[in-house]
Amino acid sequence: MEKKKNILLDNYLVKNLRAYPVLKKKFMHYIEGTKELPEGFTKRKLFHDYLKVRRNNPEKRVSQSEYMIFGFYGLSPEEQKRYLTDIEATRLMRPYNNESEKYLKDKLSFLKNFTQFVSRGWLYVPEASYEEFDAFVHKYHVVALKPQYSSWGIGFIRLTEAEFDAKEDKEEFYQKMIKGRYLAEEFVESHESLAVFHPSSLNTLRVITFRNEDRFEVFGCGLRVGNNGLHVDNAHGGGIFCEIDPKTGIINTDGIDECANTYIAHPMTGMQFRGVQIPFWEEICALCKEASQALPCLRVVGWDVAILSDGRLELIEGNHSPGMNIVQAPAKHGVHDKFESMLLDYYGDPEQYI
Hints:
This protein is of the alpha+beta class and 354 residues long. It has helices at 7-10, 12-31, 43-56, 64-69, 77-80, 86-97, 101-104, 107-113, 130-140, 161-165, 170-179, 192-195, 281-292, 336-347; strands spanning 122-124, 142-147, 157-160, 182-186, 204-212, 215-225, 240-244, 255-256, 262-263, 300-307, 313-319. The strands form three sheets. A five-stranded antiparallel β-sheet has the order 7-6-5-10-11, sandwiched between helices. It has a four-stranded antiparallel β-sheet with strand order 1-4-2-3, sandwiched between helices.
């Protein structure tokens, strides 16, 4: 017998009512990280305005972070539509970037396919013996451990050889790394020009590029630095990000974090963001151009580039569905129309790729 639909449960309004307590809990937890609320707003007023923004822009699936860092609480519906949310960006890119996902999302596949841009030592733990893993840790003294398919710094572990040797059961730790499908990488350090912002983390450059055969363009870019002594630089891990002028390599905004706190200077080191020239900028853009030509399927990619302590450039990873927060939130300018237009200009109708 065919199950009858429950009209009430399928009703859009009812679905939103059921989601209300979950959204409220998440929003209130998130807003605890915001040090100063917008003028004229309480937490409760912000939450209800956030719900209104979500109702007015159902296609955007605006997250609480996007609502705050884009300043949606002070924008008209027309102005809000100029911004590109992560959900929208993914939907727009998906037809064009489907083929590249397997090479970029999988960290092991990335390391194998972009060897000419990677100088740091690495080891895929599930394919290594305990003796090989032990030797790797002691060879590099400090290693970065990352799950094969992780993002946003989730699961990241910084391990020193002293910490490894002090473990009661080193074999058990090794088995956990196998079960979690971890990669072990040489822990590399930032060039002094970037380390000065936050020495504990590898501070990286996000460079978003378009490529179609010989056509190439840097769409936007930014600097990501760690905070609070943590070893990751991404915003989801508490980091700070700012925008870089793609033509000059000069930081042209103040910093901002995922909770919409803004920073003229890094709170731990006092190093100002705006006006700083990123060194080796022409070489960085050239590296990304060369990397974008490594595989025919690479179209829109968000490259994470490090300048190592000795001045060498290193690709940390490539992202097949890069978020656009770093090129929108710091300067408060939306890129929705520009991004959509460039996709059509570079690659044509998305239907041909489906």
